[in-house]
Specification:
The chain is mostly helical. Among the domains are: about 40 residues, no CATH class; about 50 residues. The chain has 6 helices and 2 strands.
């Protein structure tokens, strides 16, 4: 949405666009201020920029073949304390996946035209019961401790 506002800011203005879109004008002004002054970025964005540079350095030193776990361990050896899930998120953002051995096997290729609901029925069809109904149709005998039928 911010890109759309930036494209049409000169012709329409920010406030009329924000009246139509579900975004406050203050949000657009905050994003514009962050782009011009990097000191206004949130703490996480600042930390992510520093960590991305470190991940790129480790990744390049190891020929971009290491997995997230190995990059995380190397960062820890270098004295950079960071959560493993953070390294995974930033690695995905950077587009580095390490080496994938073998070929990924895709077992299911979904066909959107033949979707089924959670009950296993095509959408729009009434739900049919496919199981065996036993409640109320059979009498169960009470069996005592010795395994003999009572009553």
């Amino acid at each position: 949405m911010i890109a759309f506002i930036d494209d049409n800011r000169a012709t329409d203005g920010v406030e009329p666009i924000c009246r139509v879109l579900p975004i406050a004008p203050s949000t657009d002004h905050a994003h514009a201020a962050r782009r011009t002054d990097p000191e206004r970025l949130p703490a996480r964005a600042k930390r992510d920029a520093v960590l991305m540079a470190e991940i790129r350095r480790v990744d390049a030193a190891h020929f971009r073949v290491d997995s997230v776990r190995k990059v995380w361990r190397q960062l820890a050896r270098d004295g950079i304390v960071v959560a493993r899930c953070t390294v995974a998120r930033l690695t995905r953002t950077l587009g580095s996946a390490g080496v994938v051995r073998g070929r990924r096997i895709r077992t299911t290729i979904p066909d959107p035209a033949a979707r089924l609901t959670q009950t296993g029925q095509p959408p729009g069809n009434p739900v049919r019961f496919k199981g065996r109904r036993t409640a109320g149709t059979e009498r169960h005998r009470d069996v005592g401790r010795a395994g003999r039928a009572r009553g």
